[in-house]
Every structure is written in structure tokens, then in C-alpha cells.
Design goal:
Length: about 300
């Protein structure tokens, strides 16, 4: 019995060679735009974004300091953990020209705006170990030069409790001996970043500094290392960027489709003039989400 069903290959569309060429050209253009967007994001856009975020955070934190409302512990006035991205300190490293607001949390999403405070450690200036993490290259690379710090270099911090002074005691990498256990009432600040090629790091560098000023009172810690989310550890990415990346890529696909339609109805030159900037914009937004997905120390 001979089947009357149409053959599958006969049911599929068979575009002309010219149509296939245009399709391939469109795909290549979109991929090229995405690659260009990633380069623009890493080299031009990310430092500008970080500088803008730092400017806003600096104004907000100075206002809190002036009004005595700056955080002094892991929780705020409502007895809940501080929201991620809350300004908690200012860190100054004269040897590097660093003067940045430190934000609560060390997710990749938080650290696009500046150095982050690891939430399971005390705030700078308090008795105990305080850990600050910062990017090596992207988004201004605030901690990109910490490996060059020398023993004796000064680091100062400002929190809601006042100004604290630290002196660098050593620089260590993976496999190096750990610093000695802190004596009761002593304080230590550790700066953490990536080391190696720009955007292609191969190790973690840590700079330890001892507290040489009087320690501030240390509130009760409510978040321990065991409870710290995995996306706040060194070299972790931020999975919360996935939905936004899908949205950005969807917007990019819509813009490309509209550009192709405009090319038919309006003309090639007019379509490119309108479409290319929108494609680059969607590409830059998507590239930002890609950077958030990548390790937080890059």
C-alpha cells in the first residue's frame, strides 16, 4: 500500500541561495554584535557603571554617617540581615589610590558596583577577622593592584563606628602559610582578589593587614560561614542573572527581526541606522548579565 502522506523533505521550506546567504549574514552580524558588546562592556561600559554606582553609594553612605544611621553589624535597625549592596564602609589604600565604598555581600552582582564585604565576617575596625573582596579587572578593577602592596603599607577604613587603621603584614597566594591565629581583642583585615592575566586569572591573592588602632565593639554575629550562600565565595558567579540574560537575548532577537522587516519596508540604510544601535544596546545589556554570571573576582 502506497502512503498518501507528503514526504517530510517536500513539506520543509527550501529557501533560495540568496535567502540563505542573507540569513547567514544576519547570524554573523548578530554574533559579531554580541562579541563587540562584550568587549565594550568589559573595556568601556563596566568602568563607567562602577564609577557611577560608587558616586551614588558614596553620597548615600556619607549621609548615613552624618546622621548616625550607618550599619555597625550584620543586621540593621529592623533586626534583619542587611540587604545585599548596602554601603557598610569606606576603604582607603593610599599606595593604590583606592578610595571606595564597600558594599554588603560578595556576589558577582553586588561587586559590579564596588568591593564587597563578606557577610560572615566582622565589619572593618572591629575585633576579629574582616574580609573584603574586589574585582581584578572588570568594573574598574578596584583590587587589581593589591598584589603590589608591601609590608607596612597603610589601609584605613571608615564605618558607622569611626575610622580604623591597618598595616599590611603579608601577601599570600594559594598554598602559602595562613596568618597566625588572632589574639583575643585583635583585628585583621584581608583583601581578596584574582591574580594573573587580565580577565584570565589563574589564582587568588590575599593581602592581610593587622589592626593597629583601638578595635570597635563587635556586635553578635548572626551569619556564620556555614550559612554563607555559595555565590558569595571567591570565584563564584551569580545565578540570579540567568532570567535577565534570557530577557536580554529575547529582546535582541526581537530587535533583529524588526530590523530585517524594516530593511524590506524602509530600505537598507535606514534600517541599519535604527537597528544597529538597538542591537548594540541589547548586546551590552546581555553582556552585563554574562559578566554577572562569571566569577566575582574577575
Amino acid at each position: 500500500m502506497i502512503s498518501t502522506l507528503p514526504r517530510l523533505d517536500a513539506a520543509l521550506p527550501h529557501p533560495a541561495p540568496a535567502q540563505r546567504t542573507r540569513f547567514v549574514a544576519t547570524v554573523v552580524t548578530v554574533v559579531g554584535a554580541l562579541l563587540l558588546a562584550v568587549v565594550l562592556q568589559a573595556v568601556l561600559v563596566s568602568p563607567l557603571r562602577a564609577a557611577r554606582d560608587q558616586h551614588v553609594a558614596y553620597d548615600d553612605f556619607r549621609y548615613q554617617l552624618a546622621n548616625g544611621t550607618a550599619p555597625v553589624g550584620q543586621v540593621g535597625g529592623d533586626d534583619h540581615l542587611l540587604p545585599l549592596g548596602t554601603g557598610v564602609a569606606i576603604v582607603r589604600v593610599p599606595a593604590l589610590g583606592l578610595d571606595d565604598v564597600v558594599l554588603e555581600g560578595t556576589t558577582s552582582g553586588v561587586m559590579v558596583s564596588g568591593p564587597g564585604h563578606r557577610r560572615d565576617t566582622v565589619l572593618p575596625g572591629q575585633a576579629g577577622a574582616s574580609v573584603l573582596m574586589g574585582r581584578q579587572a572588570a568594573y574598574g578593577g578596584p583590587f587589581g593592584g593589591i598584589a603590589a602592596l608591601a609590608v607596612g603599607d597603610v589601609i584605613t577604613t571608615v564605618t558607622g563606628q569611626g575610622e580604623a587603621t591597618y598595616r599590611v603584614s603579608g601577601v599570600r597566594r594559594s598554598g602559602d602559610p595562613l596568618p597566625p591565629v588572632l589574639a583575643p581583642g585583635a583585628g585583621r583585615l584581608t583583601l581578596v582578589s584574582a591574580t594573573g592575566g587580565r580577565l584570565l586569572p589563574d589564582d587568588v591573592v590575599r593581602v592581610d593587614a593587622d589592626l593597629v588602632s583601638e578595635p570597635f565593639a563587635t556586635p553578635q554575629q548572626v551569619l556564620s560561614y556555614a550559612e554563607l550562600p555559595a555565590d558569595e565565595t571567591a570565584y563564584a558567579g551569580d545565578g540570579s542573572a540567568w532570567p535577565w540574560l534570557v530577557i536580554c537575548l529575547g529582546a535582541l532577537a526581537v530587535v533583529v527581526l524588526l530590523t530585517v522587516l524594516l530593511r524590506r519596508w524602509w530600505g537598507r540604510s535606514q534600517a541599519w541606522v535604527v537597528g544597529v544601535p538597538l542591537v548594540l544596546l541589547c548586546g551590552v545589556l546581555a553582556a552585563h548579565q554574562v559578566m554577572v554570571l562569571l566569577p566575582n573576582l574577575l
